[in-house]
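job 3f2a | input accepted
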Amino acid sequence: MSLFVLGKKVSPAELVKELGEVFPIEVRRESKQRVTYCDTFDWRLEKAGLSLTTSRIGRQVRVILTTADGRVLDSMAPRAPQFASDLTPSPLPDILEPVAKNRRLLPRARGEWNGTFISMVNPDGKAVGRLRIRVGTALLPNGEGEKALPPRIEFLPLKGYAAEEKRVTAFLKERFRVKREERSEQGVVYEATDLSPGDYSSSLQLSLDAESSAAVATRQIHLGLLQIIEANREGLTRDWDAEFLHDFRTAVRRTRSALTQIPDVFPPTVTDHFKKEFRWVGSKTGPARDIDVYLLKIPAYRAALYPAARKDLEPLVELLKEKKKAELSRLRRSVHSKRFKSLLEDWRVFLESPDTQDSTPPEAGRPIIEVASARIWNAFTKVQKRGKGIGQFSPAEDLHKLRLDCKKLRYLLRFFQSLYPADALEPVIREIKNLQDHLGDYNDLQVQRDALKRFAEEIMESKAAPPATLLAMGQLMGQLEGKQHKERELFHDRFSRFSRQQNVKRFRRLFGATAKPANRPPKKGKDR
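job 3f2a | predicted structure (528 res):
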């Protein structure tokens, strides 16, 4: 389909009039249509080249998905879908669901369009060319009015009549100076409403200067994390989907990790205060996130059971929903509290203010590349040492501690990744991710077993479910235990891969060569 945009000085009515004077045409006008443009909070559809719109037609909602290659799929629904899984089975959700997954389809922008269909006909009255003129406005957020959009001319191809399209195109270009439109319809609306698709990512998007001071670079890291925390606050409290809480909690955890793992760049009183405050925030997010994780695992739990037993998990689902409601209420109170508001305000003020302390922290002025390499190298050697000490009969707690060490190392790599060549860093991050994922799976299986046991005891005490529910939960616990044993057996091979000489050389080449001893403050009571 060819797209053109009409200049400001030409009205669509004038175009139709003059087109009719040159070509035999038939005109049909569309009624005004309000269109909602949907995407996930992290712009998954935009990144995948998909466009999703909804518009009301009578008592139904028409859902249209346009793919990157121009395919248009539509479906009717009683209401606008909140998730891809809300749509009835068809090719549309088959394409949409793997991209959106469990993220809510949020209304990102709205527009209103009037359309005029024009058919060019031959002497026999047969259509030999078709185009549509769309005149629209973008509806500004919060009821702030509307903004007129450039009229769009869409050529709707008719097989075997390319010559007629070329004739009409040539006429429009010569008479009305129409220009090709490269932007999509939703792109035009997004631009008019000051939306920037792709403006959010749960990953830090930094470009650190290797020679900048550690204090300046660390402030940049924390400001990036603070931006993620603030961006997810509304979606968390409104419970739009589970990923808001996940991204919020992860950014809080990374903030705490950075305060601990990049020491001596801020005054000790500042570091200690914000460590305590972000630890408080983290403690408030944990219970609600745990329930989210279990709810997200319900489809997998059902699939693991015989079909006849899957319905037996409904009492567990209801219990989890009740718990989620209670935990979310507690979390909302914390996030809306004066303490939390003051925390974010005070943290931003500190991060955006220059260091005016009388005594400069010992690491504050060092080049960040030196600090980063030293911290990453130390974290890597710690992982190596702990991992090599784990044997066949080591307790599960040792693997849990190693998992936390791996997480700290991966956080550091993400904080400082812009300081190192991407092609050299990619295999390093991939190796630590593989090991961390393995250890995470092992730990998660234990956590799930413990949680199911606890939930089963609650259900049994309340007598809120039939014995079949407890039997189904028992089957799941048995399956999880079997999977955990398999993961434990795989540990030696997974760690051996991570600690092989080739990987050690990668770390040493990237970080060991530039790692220098830290400028530690003198210990009290000792002369130096």
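job 3f2a | The two ends are 77 Å apart (CA to CA).
job 3f2a | closed
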